[in-house]
Amino acid sequence: MTPTDAPLNGGRPAFRTVLELLKPITWFAPMWAFGCGLVSSDQSLADRWPMALVGVLLAGPLVCGTSQAVNDWFDRHVDAINEPNRPIPSGRIPGRWGLYIAVGWTLLSILAANVLGEWGRGAALAGLVLAWAYSAPPFRLKRNGWLGNAAVAVCYEGLPWITAAAVMGVAMPDPYVLWTAGLYSLGAHGIMTLNDFKSIEGDRKLGVDSLPVLLGPVGAGRVACVVMAVPQLVMIALLLQWERPNHAAVVAALLGIQCLLMGRMMDDPKARAPWYNATGTTLYVLGMLVTAFAIRPLVTGAP
Question: If you average pLDDT over residues 194-209, what whole number do you get?
Answer without folding.
Answer: 85
